[in-house]
Design a protein that fits this description.
It is a single chain. By secondary structure, this protein is of the alpha+beta class. It has a domain at about 5-80. The protein is about 20% helix and about 15% strand. It contains four helices and three strands. It has a three-stranded antiparallel beta sheet. The protein is elongated.
Length: about 130
């Protein structure tokens, strides 16, 4: 396990597509100080997979960096794909064309919306709906 692996684990657990973080928060998550180049050179935060070891960690977690602010020492990780990790084993057969894939937005609102008990979802929101005006 590499020293930046905790960042990958942290990002994989995120439910949101945008994860703003300060450099200090990244150091807290990883448990190590960022190298001097990360502190002073914006290019260190590029999404080039051959850039540095930490870049591979956030890319493998399915994120890219953006809005890197060297003065304020913060950036945003943006989810760009499903994280690469071993497929869970279990019952079920993939179809003949390989594993079934869901749209990237599938489940995006899960646990973010609540329907009050007793709400009739078939009732029009506009009480005058269907009436001639």
């Amino acid at each position: 396990m590499g020293k930046y692996a905790p960042l990958g684990d942290f990002l994989r657990k995120q439910r949101f597509a945008l994860v703003p973080m300060t450099f200090e928060e990244i150091e807290r998550v990883t448990g190590v100080e960022l190298p001097p180049k990360a502190q002073h050179h914006r290019a260190w935060w590029s999404n080039n997979p051959s850039n540095n070891v930490m870049t591979k960690v956030w890319l493998d977690a399915g994120y890219q960096t953006e809005q890197v602010d060297m003065v304020a020492r913060k950036l945003v990780f943006r989810r760009v794909q499903t994280p690469s990790r071993p497929e869970p084993e279990g019952p079920g057969k993939p179809d003949q064309n390989g594993p079934r894939k869901r749209h990237p937005l599938f489940g995006i609102l899960k646990e973010l919306t609540q329907i009050v008990p007793g709400t009739d979802l078939t009732e029009p929101a506009d009480p005058n709906w269907g009436e001639d005006r």
